[in-house]
Design goal:
It is built from 7 helices and 7 strands. About 45% of the residues lie in helices and about 10% in strands. The radius of gyration is 15 Å and the shape is globular.
Length: about 180
């Protein structure tokens, strides 16, 4: 999959990329999905095309799930890269979002998004507030599969690195 220069990476993308460095960790994620996540992380670092929030909420979430020492996995290297280089990103790639209770003023009002995960709203708010509405790159969180149409209706694109995995996992959880 070819990604645009500007995009947001949901936390599960670098976390899934880390599975390559942890073969002992039990996972049902296909190797092709892990490879796609590695390639997405490497793309963002190479192009310096990451879009984040200026209040570091996305970085804080990354830091909760990845190792700041930058190893052993590609995802860990990614979070260290962000920490060390985020100040070099153009101001246009650091988007201001404003808390509104447990959500954000920039989170779109749409009936199909009323039950959207609180912890993932920051990604949608950033994408929605950015003038180019960059896509959110998603790997293994199947709940996003159920929200993709409502997000598209408000102009937000989700790029699934593992669409077959996400769709089948969503169907197993939610039914056809």
């Amino acid at each position: 999959m070819t990604l645009p220069k500007l995009c947001l990476l949901d936390t599960n993308v670098p976390v899934t990329a880390n599975l390559a460095a942890r073969p002992e960790q039990a996972s049902d994620v296909p190797d092709a999905c892990v490879l796609a996540c590695i390639e997405a992380v490497e793309h963002v670092v190479k192009t310096r095309g990451l879009v984040i929030d200026d209040g570091d909420e996305i970085l804080a979430e990354y830091r909760k799930h990845l190792h700041m020492r930058g190893q052993p996995g590609v995802g860990d290297k990614f979070v260290k890269w962000i920490h060390d280089h985020c100040w070099r990103l153009p101001a246009s790639q650091k988007v201001h979002i404003t808390k509104n209770g447990e959500s954000y003023h920039e989170f779109p009002a749409h009936e199909g998004l009323k039950d959207f995960d609180i912890s993932d709203r920051k990604f949608v708010a950033v994408a929605n507030a950015h003038p180019a509405k960059p896509p959110i790159v998603q790997a293994t969180d199947s709940k996003w599969w159920g929200w993709k149409d409502a997000l598209a209706e408000v102009g937000i694109t989700v790029r699934f690195l593992c669409p077959d995995y996400s769709a089948s996992k969503f169907t197993r959880k939610m039914g056809p």
